[in-house]
Write a structure and sequence with these properties.
heterodimer; A: alpha/beta; Rossmann fold; Alpha-Beta Plaits; six-stranded mixed sheet; four-stranded antiparallel sheet; 13 strands; B: mainly alpha; 3 domains; four-stranded mixed sheet; 4 strands; 71% helix
Chain lengths: 365, 498
């Protein structure tokens, strides 16, 4: 992507930490952050509004160059977490360190390394698209005259260069989201807080955006991205699942899938189904659970599919079963998250809390 | 350098936003300007004579007072009707069809002749406290005019009496001279004859002095004394013929008191001459007022209020635009961007100040050109002083607007604050009422408004050619700094982590 080469670097002087992406700075009021190994290190973070606890005991660590996705239904505390991490909110309990500093005491140097894309559109509707990006660049000390190329590059990235002369009031909601993203990226931040960056974007642009995020990550940039599109978890290096103000699970996507179902899921279909096969497979080592859906197949949860499937096939063959197919089933993240939430709360999450890309697109259409 | 870039960037953004909303600025300027111009063109600040009904005594279609002084009535009042129906006149007053009812006394001349004041009854029901003085003032002016005419007429009559007295005195002195001469010649018969003539003249003089009234009391005493001496001289002349032959070192005329009497009457004559030489107009109004206007110009309504209107417009524009400047961003959560970005509150505030100062000062230049060129409002003082006043006024007003913006919890509330400040300006900055007419609680509001200082200073510089009060300039500068610091404090408060 051209953007990478075209970005005028934010003044090195403003990023002069010994290791640009790891917080090692100890400053007054940041004692607990000394030698924090991660870009973001939150421990036992809590936020109350009056008597209402919005966030309870959240701990997460995000390493440099990582894309960390916070996924959860609306009201689960994702945005509050971001607000705490960029210093808008003061935690009611626990600690948060970003680049080795407490967010409420960020230095200007640290702020220059952070980008923020808010959930709602908060730019200037009376200005043109380009004037908005100019204004955002100006806040970071980037003169619009000396940074014309990087401003153009970021507008091209979000496909708004052609619309640069239009007032924001006259462009669509999707274009406004892209503009907000452009404003957050114009100073090429080391850490990007993106609160639902892909909301209201079409699938092609969403794909491009994730590709760009990946590119940023490969250049050592760190991203904390919230989304309600649970299938977007695939694009993240690690995912945190939030529910009811708590982080109920955290890990790589595959780990979460494994954790949600207690192992790998394997589907077996037979030429002639028989209830006796259920007993046969249950006795195989490594099989944790076997179910017989109302068709001619069996669904098994196993410890490790690659290791267990040969033994399964051998056992079934011995018992005379004619297997038509064996396949490892990859549950959708919808299923994964619903499972995780069910395991956490003992009940199904409220309808409409989580959104798939497809359902969002249907709603948008 | 980077800090300057941030300030410039915020300024540019604000200016662009303002330029994208030209209607807002136009409304802010043209609305109040149109109202002020209409006010200036449509008002002449003249108090017209009250509309009056004159009630004449029943049975007198046109009483003598009216016959003689109708001009005085109609110069001070707009008389719509003469009637003898007092109840009708009262009804008209109650219905507010007239401002005043004038009830003439039934026999004024007889009352005055009887040594009492003749009273004109005045009925009015003005409820406007600012105009309540109007009717009594106009009626007193009318009564003064009539009284003056009466005095003038009396003075002229007295002048005539004084002339007669002088003539009689002159005659009395001449007769006494002849009497003294006859005494000195020893001609008793002639002396007695001249003495009688002198007595008759003094009698006439006494009668004239009585006619002149109490004011002539001082003159009567020497006349009475003269008459007494003349009677005594006559007695002595009549009693003894030997008086004329009796040797005496003193002249006989001295012995008879004739010389002293002549001397008294001569002094009286000199006093009457002096009195008679005063014209009646001077006698009734010895002191006159001779006002002279010394200001560089005699301004009309528009000219006089132009500096005040300019100050008001600047404050109104600055406060209205400033009040919306920050509250909109605060409520749209654009402040979140400022909290993430490495821009300080000072840089943010400076950027906003620069943009709004530039914008409002540009509009101010246009307004000043309209006033100086279009309405011929003069600028007698230093243009640089005027620039300084306008600059300070704008900075202070923008600060006040920003403070409103940071305190307000909604755009509507910010607009309400700005409207309140406009109302405050109208009532307390010297437009509706002069500051001298305000008491302490109101004066606190007056001197909290930048426009109060701006209006006073601009009037001094533009219309009087003065430098303006240094204290006001210092206070305005102090307010500018105070509002800036207050805004900075409020901004810190608004952007602190929740």
């Amino acid at each position: 992507m051209k953007l990478t080469e075209d970005f005028a670097p934010v003044q090195e002087a403003e990023r002069a930490a010994p290791d640009a992406n790891v917080g090692t700075v100890s400053q007054q009021g940041n004692d607990a952050c000394t030698d924090a190994p991660c870009v973001i290190d939150a421990r036992g973070l809590r936020k109350d509004f009056g008597t209402h606890a919005v966030l309870t005991d959240l701990s997460l660590q995000v390493r440099a160059g990582e894309i960390f996705g916070l996924i959860g239904p609306s009201g689960s505390g994702k945005s509050t977490t971001i607000h705490l991490l960029y210093g808008h909110l003061r935690p009611s309990g626990g600690t948060a360190c970003v680049f080795g500093e407490r967010p409420v005491h960020f230095s200007a140097r640290t702020r220059a390394r952070i980008g923020y894309m808010p959930q709602g559109f908060i730019l200037y509707p009376d200005l043109t698209v380009k004037q908005n990006v100019d204004a955002a660049a100006g806040l970071y000390g980037l003169s619009e005259w000396h940074n014309r190329r990087s401003i153009r590059a970021v507008l091209e990235l979000v496909e708004l260069w052609e619309a640069r002369g239009k007032t924001v009031r006259s462009i669509s909601g999707g274009m406004q989201r892209r503009l907000a993203l452009a404003a957050a990226l114009v100073h090429d931040p080391d850490l990007l807080f993106a609160d639902e960056p892909t909301a209201n974007l079409d699938p092609i642009l969403r794909m491009r955006l994730w590709k760009h995020f990946r590119g940023m990550s490969e250049r050592g940039k760190t991203l904390l991205v919230t989304t309600q599109y649970i299938d977007e978890a695939e694009h993240c290096d690690r995912v945190g699942v939030m529910y009811g103000g708590a982080l109920i699970a955290e890990g790589r996507p595959e780990e979460l899938r494994h954790r949600a179902f207690g192992g790998d899921v394997v589907d077996i279909t037979f030429e002639r189904p028989s209830e006796s096969y259920l007993q046969v497979v249950s006795s195989v080592a490594g099989v944790r659970e076997a179910q017989s859906p109302p068709d001619e197949s069996l669904r098994l949860t196993v410890e490790d599919a690659e290791r267990v499937i040969p033994g399964l096939l051998a056992q079934l063959s011995t018992s005379g079963a004619k297997v038509r197919s064996v396949a490892q089933y990859r549950p959708t993240f919808d299923e994964v998250f619903i499972r995780l939430i069910e395991q956490h709360s003992g009940s199904r999450p409220p309808a409409g809390g989580l959104t798939t890309s497809a359902s969002a697109q249907e709603e948008a259409d | 350098m980077r800090a300057i870039t941030r300030v410039v960037s915020v300024s540019l953004k604000e200016t662009r936003e303002l330029l994208h909303r030209p209607l807002l600025a136009l409304t802010l300027i043209l609305g109040p300007l149109a109202i002020l111009v209409s006010f200036g063109v449509g008002s002449d600040a003249t108090f017209y004579p009250p509309i009056a009904i004159v009630v004449v005594p029943p049975g007198q279609e046109k009483p003598r007072l009216l016959q003689e002084y109708q001009r005085e009535f109609e110069e001070s009042l707009t008389v719509t009707e003469y009637t003898s129906d007092l109840e009708y006149a009262r009804r008209q007053l109650r219905r507010n069809r007239v401002d005043v009812v004038i009830v003439l006394p039934p026999a004024p001349y007889e009352t005055i002749a009887g040594g009492e004041q003749a009273r004109i009854q005045v009925l009015y029901n003005e409820i406007d406290p600012a105009r309540r003085w109007l009717v009594p003032d106009f009626v007193r002016s009318m009564a003064s005019g009539i009284n003056r005419e009466i005095f003038l007429q009396g003075a002229r009559e007295q002048q005539q009496e004084l002339d007669d007295s002088a003539n009689e005195l002159d005659l009395a002195v001449r007769v006494l001279d002849r009497t003294i001469a006859a005494v000195q010649r020893g001609n008793r018969e002639e002396a007695l004859e001249q003495l009688h003539l002198a007595q008759a003249t003094v009698d006439r003089l006494e009668q004239i002095l009585v006619r002149l009234g109490p004011e002539a009391t001082a003159l009567s005493l020497p006349v009475e004394r003269a008459r007494a001496r003349l009677e005594m001289a006559e007695e002595r002349l009549a009693q003894a013929e030997s008086v004329l032959a009796t040797p005496n070192p003193r002249p006989l005329s001295d012995q008879l008191g004739l010389t002293q009497t002549r001397s008294d009457l001569a002094r009286l004559q000199a006093a009457l001459d002096r009195l008679g030489s005063v014209p009646p107009e001077v006698a009734i109004s010895p002191l006159a007022v001779d006002p002279e206007y010394t200001a560089p110009l005699q301004p009309g309504i528009i000219t006089f209020f132009a500096p005040t209107a300019l100050a008001l417009l600047i404050q109104h524009m600055a406060v209205s635009l400033g009040a919306l400047a920050l509250v909109r961003e605060r409520l749209a959560q654009t402040f979140d961007l400022y909290m993430v970005a490495p821009i300080s509150n000072l840089q943010l505030l400076l950027g906003k100040y620069v943009a709004y100062l530039f914008f409002i000062l540009t509009l101010t230049v246009v307004l000043v050109m309209i006033l100086l060129g279009g309405f011929d409002v003069p600028l007698f003082g230093s243009p640089w002083r005027m620039v300084l006043v306008l600059l300070l006024l704008t900075i202070t007003s923008v600060g006040l607007g920003f403070a409103f913006s940071l305190v307000a919890t909604s755009e509507r509330q910010a607009v309400q604050f700005s409207m309140l400040s406009l109302l405050g300006m109208v009532f307390f900055s010297g437009i509706a009422l002069p500051l001298d007419a305000l008491r302490l609680p109101a004066l606190i509001f007056s001197y909290a408004l930048p426009a109060t200082y701006g209006a006073d200073l601009l009037q001094d510089v533009m219309l009087r050619g003065l430098h303006g009060k240094d204290l006001f300039l210092i206070v305005l500068g102090g307010l500018a700094v105070g509002f800036f610091l207050a805004c900075l404090g409020l901004l810190h408060w608004r952007t602190r982590p929740a």
